Amino acid sequence: MRKAYFLLPHAIKFILVNLNGLYLKRKRYSGRFFEILNNYLKVDKDETMGLDIDKVKEITKHSPFYSITNKIDFFKSPVITKEIVKENYQQIINKDEVTTYLATGGTTGSGLKYPISKEFIYHQWAVYWKFRMIHGLDMDTWCAYIFAKSILSSNKKKPPFWIKEYFSKRLYLTLDHLNPATVKSYLEEIKKSGIQWLHGYPSVINSLANLVNQNNLTDLAHSLNIKCITTSSEMLLGYQRKNVESTFNCKVRQLYGMTEGVANIFECEHGSLHVDETYSFVEFIKDEDNPTQYKIVGTQYHNKAFPLVRYDTGDRVILDNDHELCKCGRKSRKIKEIIGRDVEYLLLKDGRKIVRIGMLFASAYNINKAQIVQHTKGHAEFYIIKGAMYSQKDEDELVDGIIQLLGVDFKYDIIYTDTLRTTRNGKTRLIINETEIDKGLVDSPFNFVN
Ligand SMILES: [Zn+2]
How much is the pLDDT for 108? Predict the structure, then answer.
């Protein structure tokens, strides 16, 4: 199917991408969607943490796996992992409510065929849109999306390297064709289309910024008057934010969401990360291995097809200890930092897990991209794509960082390269940990579309 698609003329691809856009628009933005979105906007400033036990009772009542009748039951119920969910799949699913299935990222194990309800799709897209609306974007705002999944044949040599999708108002620009020779045409297309919102994975947007800088196109980038850049699906690293913001002369705003819909965290106008308190019930549970970090454990309120209660996302946060209200006036909890998933750790020789590896690159401004691959405990390969200004000093700083974070006994190789490994849908993971067998990196269809 996919092979045949790439052989089609551009005009037919354009039609298919637009038909897909129409299909998705109808699926997401119909029924109760606008009512739900308005509700999220209405409660936005007043949301506070609190368990809505009635919602939990309502969504779990047709799933024999759970027996929750009050708050005491709730807090007594165990924290569940994806593995537990998979073992008890038939006891959790409520087939009458299933509209479709999504594949969820296999960060802690193999993928999960995840059933979702219609209502859940509306809620998920409503919280995403609430975040965008906070930053002045709405459903009529055109978005230039640097798209990591192939929609045009990779041996295409001449523009257009993009497809405009009119129903969702998106200009999909392909990552495959983005290089020093084509980057100018990308910026010119965005300018010609008058688009002032950019979206993509942090690593992808950062690559675009690097190309802009290396090809002296910063003036052209500034002339686009980009109002906002949004990122999702990966952690936004400090150096990426700095690089992208200065290249496009605007703010980058990040959203943490997930297919399972047990937690959503968004960046506000003042740069704080807030929990969407009424979307789901989010608990932060201390991680015994890393006492400064808290696991994100969440409970859905809206997916009757497959309710998840006290579900361990595998992600962690560092909490914001200043208890002052954010300048934005929201009363919801603030997070200092979101840390990657379970897969994003390195193992020391004695088996200890070290997370927060992204910190190594937080101020490494002369590195364009990095990826760490670990095959055996106590050893890793650091693949580095150098920036134009990279020097011995940068390597020395990286080595210092490795020793500080991982200790003197940790063995490492620094390998300079031009390409990094990507997942099936084009994501570049910071860490590829191959010390354990389960590597079922199934990608969410949401990545294709959000
Ligand atoms: Zn705020």
Answer: 33
Question: Residues 215, 334: one domain?
Answer: yes
Q: Which of 25, 40, 21 is nearest to 129 (CA)?
A: 40
Asked if 38 and 168 sit in the same domain, the reply is: yes
Find the 144 Cα to ligand 1 centroid distance in Å. Answer: 26
- Kindly tell me the burial class for residue 398, based on how many C-beta atoms sit within 10 Å of its own C-beta (0-12, 13-18, 19 or more): buried
* Cα 243 to averaged position of ligand 1 atoms, centre (Å): 23
Asked if residue 447 belongs to a domain, the reply is no
Q: Are residues 364 and 312 in the same domain?
A: no
Neighbouring residues of the ion ligand 1, judged by CB less than 5 Å = 268, 270, 272, 326, 328, 330
pLDDT at residue 442, rounded to an integer: 28
Please tell me whether residues 250 and 128 are part of one structural domain: yes
Residues 346 and 369: beta-carbon distance below 8 Å: no
Please check whether residues 221 and 86 belong to one and the same domain.
yes
Measure 261 CA to ligand 1 centroid, in angstroms.
22
> What is the CA(307)–ligand 1 centre distance, in A?
29
Per-residue pLDDT, 340: 66
* b/e 12-33 (16+ beta carbons within 10 angstroms → b): ebbeebbebbeebbebbbeeeb
288 lies in the same domain as 356 = no
Closest CA to 448 of 418, 425, 428: 425
Q: In one letter, which amino acid is 236?
A: L
Chunk the chain into consecutive blocks of 10 residues (it has 450) and report each block's average pLDDT, rounded to whole numbers: 82 95 95 97 96 97 96 96 88 96 55 86 97 97 89 87 97 90 97 97 88 95 98 82 96 92 96 97 89 92 97 89 89 88 74 74 77 92 89 91 87 93 72 60 28
CATH code: domain of residue 407: 3.30.300.30
If you measure from the C-alpha of residue 268 to the centroid of ligand 1, how many angstroms do you get, rounded to a whole number?
5
Q: What's the Rg (C-alpha) of the chain? A: 22
* Residue ranges making up the domain that contains 404: 346-433
Among 288, 311, 340, identify where a domain stops.
340
**Cα–Cα distance measured from residue 215 to residue 385, given in angstroms and rounded to the nearest whole number:** 17
End-to-end, the C-alpha distance of the chain in Å comes to 23
Q: How far is CA 272 from CA 124, 253, 314, in A?
A: 21, 10, 22
Same-domain status, 18 and 50: yes
Q: Count structural domains, the chain.
A: 2
What pTM did the predictor assign? 0.81
CA of 209 to the centre of ligand 1 (A): 27
Token pair for residue 377? 């405990």
